[in-house]
Write a structure and sequence with these properties.
With 227 residues, the chain is of the alpha/beta class. The protein is 47% helix and 13% strand. The chain is globular, with a radius of gyration of 17 Å.
Length: 227
Amino acid sequence: MTNILLTGASRGIGAAIAARLSGEGMALVATSSADGDLADPETPARLWASALDRLDGRIDILINNAGIFEGNPLESDDWTANWNRTMQVNLTASAELCRAAVLHWQARGSGGRIVNIASRAAHRGDSPAHWHYAASKGGMVSMTKTIARAYAAQGIYAFAICPGFTMTGMAEDYLASRGGDKLLADIPLGRVAMPEEVAEMAAFCALNAPPSMTGAVLDVNGASYVR
């Protein structure tokens, strides 16, 4: 039995990943904001400890999907506080869970896999009100590559997935606020990605990607950004 910890599973991509993996007969702990606010620096350690307890002391795969996408105009009086909140939720909490996972696997000598759900914004940036979001996802990609390079010889593999617009609540709000037709015109596929498409990539990285793929950053954006 493979034991998996998935964050941000209440809706959108996270819910699709949970549904996809549940069909594989995995032991899955799927967390959401109801399990703790990742803006609280103490939450990641509590989530990890709780998941370990529910999974009989062993986690084989960590999927970091939880994240926020909140506007932060330059004129905002709370700009720095908003920046720090997004960094804490999107990057620092994910880093703390990755650290816990690596230490867990090193102690067990077992190896394991990390799948980080980043964003197209890590490569091409985002709107003027979303410096913090793009920076957090860029940091996630760099962190994933560092983990892959540092621990591959120990059987610890790491992958990042970078969706473009995906049909989730966050993307729907963004499209509505900026004129959906214009943004869709920038996607050669002609539509945004579906959560199930991202979930398929996450399941592949978590379960079937060959070890030589560790460190890979996979795009799911309808060719709206190609590298």
